[in-house]
């Protein structure tokens, strides 16, 4: 029977696997923030200040100011870990079918198992990234761990003639108002704008008389592509097609159909923190001086029921560094 594949090789393999489609995680939380602490992750949020300096006399003492421009949230680092048993019966089938080639077949089985776990990992990370844009820190089951304290202006619920299904509304002006609020809350750090629209929001934009009128012009025609609004007010707009199944096996959209999420991108606006895996074989973990990676994987023998366990583990958490998002409900 084949020997176990070393943890270092399995870890390298799972970290190099192509990710599932995670648009929010990739575009907003691409910066990786490794933590040296195996137990906690510290989230530091820069608050908007934008005060001006006052001139003073040449012989006057320097003005005393507060440096409390940050809010800190410290919480336990999450742990996500799943393992699956390749049974002795399955290994025997591999031996019988492949003969001397059973090592290659075992690697294939392990790779397939890792790929399945990695896809589930990526889906969970995307879910947590989307929830961060809503202003909350959650675990993989949606339980709230912390709250960023978004002001009401960053979570508007529209009604009446402000609804984008109402012809009297002005979606472009509403987006500009969201931008202004994000600029204030993020201390003016925004360099680029991106947004995700739920299915009903995109439909409302596509049918809105102001958008239809704009689309008649040469400039406006360029923003309507394949039946979707691709750009408004210098903001790239996309639909998010990700979904997941909740505890009752009901399909849930990552971004609900009636939600519009506007994000101001900036270098330190967000990132994905991760703590080292606590395992004797993990790089950067217990008893190791190596640098931790987001994912760790290992393999070991089980005597009863006989087989080989394969585990994939990680401790990631997408976090905001500034209040850079607006979670709006323009369609009810």
Write a brief caption for the model.
By secondary structure, the chain is α+β, with helices and mostly antiparallel strands. The protein has eight helices and 19 strands.
Structure keywords:
three-stranded mixed beta sheet; 332 residues; capsid protein of prophage fold
Total of DSSP H or I helical runs spanning 4+ residues: 8
What fold name goes in the CATH topology slot?
capsid protein of prophage fold
Question: What's the CATH class, please?
Answer: Alpha Beta
Give the neighbour order of strands across the main sheet.
10-11-7-14-19
Q: Strand pairing plus helix content: what structural class?
A: alpha+beta
Shape: globular
Oligomer: single chain
Q: What is the string of helix and strand elements?
A: HHEEEEHHEEHEHHHEEEEEEEEEEEE
N-to-C CA distance: 60 Å
Q: Can you walk me through this structure?
A:
- The chain is α+β, with helices and mostly antiparallel strands and 332 residues long.
- The protein has one domain (7-15, 23-48, 73-328): capsid protein of prophage fold.
- It is 28% helix and 27% strand.
- The protein has eight helices and 19 strands.
- It has a five-stranded mixed sheet with strand order 10-11-7-14-19. Strands 1-15-18 form a three-stranded mixed sheet. Strands 4-17-16 form a three-stranded antiparallel sheet.
- A hairpin with a 2-residue loop joins β10 (231-232) and β11 (235-239).
- The termini are far apart.
- The mean pLDDT is 86.
């Amino acid at each position: 029977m084949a020997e176990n594949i070393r943890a270092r090789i399995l870890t390298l393999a799972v970290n190099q696997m192509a990710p599932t489609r995670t648009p929010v995680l990739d575009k907003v939380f691409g910066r990786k923030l490794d933590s040296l602490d195996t137990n906690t992750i510290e989230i530091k949020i820069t608050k908007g200040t934008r005060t001006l300096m006052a001139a003073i006399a040449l012989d006057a003492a320097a003005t005393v100011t507060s440096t409390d421009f940050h809010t800190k949230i410290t919480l336990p680092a999450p742990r996500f870990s799943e393992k699956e048993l390749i049974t002795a019966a399955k290994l025997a089938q591999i031996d019988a079918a492949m003969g001397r080639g059973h090592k290659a077949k075992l690697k294939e089985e392990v790779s397939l198992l890792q790929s399945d776990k990695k896809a589930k990992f990526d889906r969970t990370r995307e879910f947590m990234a989307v929830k961060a844009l809503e202003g909350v820190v959650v675990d993989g089951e949606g339980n709230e761990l912390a709250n960023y304290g978004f002001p009401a202006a960053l979570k508007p619920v529209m009604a009446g003639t402000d609804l984008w299904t109402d012809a009297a509304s002005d979606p472009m002006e509403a987006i500009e108002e969201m931008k202004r609020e994000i600029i204030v809350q993020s201390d003016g750090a925004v360099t680029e704008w991106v947004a995700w629209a739920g299915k009903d929001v995109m439909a409302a934009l596509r049918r809105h008389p102001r958008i239809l009128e704009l689309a008649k012009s040469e400039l406006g025609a360029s923003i309507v592509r394949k039946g979707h609004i691709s750009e408004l007010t210098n903001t790239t707009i996309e639909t998010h097609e990700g979904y997941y199944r909740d505890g009752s096996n009901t399909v849930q959209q990552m971004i609900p159909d009636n939600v519009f999420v506007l994000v101001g991108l900036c270098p330190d606006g967000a990132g994905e923190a991760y703590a080292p895996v606590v395992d004797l074989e993990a790089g950067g973990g217990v008893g190791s001086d190596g640098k931790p990676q987001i994912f760790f994987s290992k393999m070991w023998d089980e005597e009863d029921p006989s087989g080989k366990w394969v585990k994939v583990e990680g401790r990631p958490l997408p976090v905001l560094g500034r209040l850079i998002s607006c979670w709006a409900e323009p369609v009810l």
